[in-house]
Amino acid sequence: MRKIAWIFLVALCLPLCGFAGQLESIKDVPIPQQNPQTPAKIELGKKLFFDRRLSGDGTMSCATCHDPQQGYSDGLEISLSYPTTRNWRNSPTLIGVAFQKYLFHDGRASSLEEQALFPMMSAFEMNQNLDFMEEEIRSVPEYVAEFAEVFGDPDVTRERIAMAIAAFERTLISRDAPLDRFLSGNKKGLSPEAVRGYKIFTGKGKCSECHFGVNLADDRFHALQVQENPEHLKDPRIAATRRFVAKVFHFEGYRTLAEDPGRYLITKDQKDWRAFKTPTLREIAGTAPYMHNGIYATLDEVIEFFNGGGGTGNAALKPLQLTPTEKGQLKVFLEEGLTGAPIRFIYPKIP
Ligand code: HEC
Ligand code: HEC
Predict the structure, then answer these.
(1) What pLDDT sits at residue 26?
(2) Which segments of the chain does DSSP mark as H helices, in order?
(3) Is 224 helix (H, G, I), strand (E, B) or coil?
(4) Is-same-fold flag (39-169; 178-337)?
(5) Does pTM surpass 0.85?
(6) pLDDT tens digits, residue range 29-70?
(7) Would you say the CB of residue 156 lies under 6 angstroms from ligand 1?
(8) pLDDT of residue 4
(9) Is 212 in the pocket of ligand 2 (CB under 6 A)?
(10) Three-class SS of residue 40?
(11) CATH number of 178-337
């Protein structure tokens, strides 16, 4: 009887007590009921994703900062921006974004349909007027025909533009990584060195306390106190961007805001000060530089950061005392184990 009670307690606790989570292989991609996937919608979304009409000065598309050749990121510390402005954060990969519960480093959007309009409107990104953009797309006969096919009538709206782009984004999935083969029972799925790294990831390294599930991410926010880049702190253009976003989110004292407040911007809860979303680790070998501000150029630097117990004053991490060999094994797991088959991609022809 006592034994049964224990099993019951443990089963109840596992999802609630914050133990290291299980890694999971890729399975069904969640698709919202209001926006079913169809091949025509995905194709339309892909065109819009690459269409520079979506930016105010016609120089930028979504792919400028989420480039298929760069792991759907842009390879820069902080992302590109509208002329004369500067962005303030690193462009996250869009691979596996369908699995993300919250979007942006601070989680300020929660659906891809909602998110897509932000960069178009953003003064420091695409800086486009959405009324104008609708007219631009409406004036292209090929687009009108495609909207009619996809949505049942030819009306072009910002909501439909966002729906089509979201449908395309949900196709960006890393599949058949060595980790997936290993998890589905193929013991040789990972190389022996990567298996050692996997054991550190889920054991001594404690990585899977936050990096677990299909996307190796817990859908939560942690204040690891990743350091700010001193050069960025001095740049008045970045200060303007930071303060502008803070104002939009009703941050009191936005005019003197001198660092990235992270999740606090949204919750105004002190525990979220400089907390950022746990990012996916799938395809991590191809999406340097790392962290919300791109402060680390290599995985070695990231591993060193976690090994040292994270940034000054953080309460989320403790030093790990990994040996040089163990650090090497962990890196092999991250690089080899989480890189899937290349995502097949053919550039669309923009009408
Ligand atoms: C000028 C560069 C730039 C352009 C253009 C751009 N993005 Fe982004 N994107 C970023 C940056 C930087 C972030 C992170 C911003 C943040 O966290 O505050 C981001 C975040 C995202 C995210 C959230 C990902 C995650 O894991 O949280 C999605 C989805 C996304 N962008 C899609 C798009 C789409 C769709 C477009 C075109 C409509 C687009 N982006 C255009 C730079 C850009
Ligand atoms: C307490 C939760 C937590 C633990 C434990 C943790 N991470 Fe993270 N990890 C995060 C968060 C949050 C970020 C994003 C921080 C930021 O953007 O400032 C991150 C970022 C990363 C990145 C950069 C990803 C990118 O695209 O920028 C890598 C790589 C990474 N972690 C690997 C690891 C490894 C390896 C371990 C174990 C040694 C580990 N993490 C342990 C929460 C955690």
Answers:
(1) 86
(2) 2-16, 39-49, 62-65, 112-115, 117-121, 130-138, 141-151, 158-169, 178-183, 192-202, 230-234, 236-248, 264-267, 299-307, 324-332
(3) coil
(4) yes
(5) yes
(6) 999 999 999 999 999 999 999 999 999 999 999 999 999 999
(7) no
(8) 55
(9) no
(10) helix
(11) 1.10.760.10
For residue 111, how far is its CA from the centre of ligand 1 (angstroms)? Answer: 13
Q: Is the CB of 291 within 6 Å of ligand 2?
A: yes
Task: Look at residue 201 and give its three-state secondary structure.
Answer: helix
Domain ranges in the chain are 39-169, 178-337
Enumerate residue ranges in the chain where pLDDT < 50.
9-18
**8 CA distance to ligand 2 middle (Å):** 32
Most ligand 1 atoms within 8 A of CB, residue of 55, 62, 78, 114 to mutate: 62
Pick the residue whose CA is nearest to atom 39 on ligand 2: 207
- The whole-number pLDDT of residue 2 equals 57
Residue 119 Cα to ligand 1 middle (Å) = 6
Ligand 1 centroid – CA 91 distance (Å): 6
Q: Which fold has domain 39-169?
A: Cytochrome Bc1 Complex; Chain D, domain 2 (1.10.760)
pLDDT 10s digits, 2-33: 555 555 544 444 444 445 789 999 889 999 99
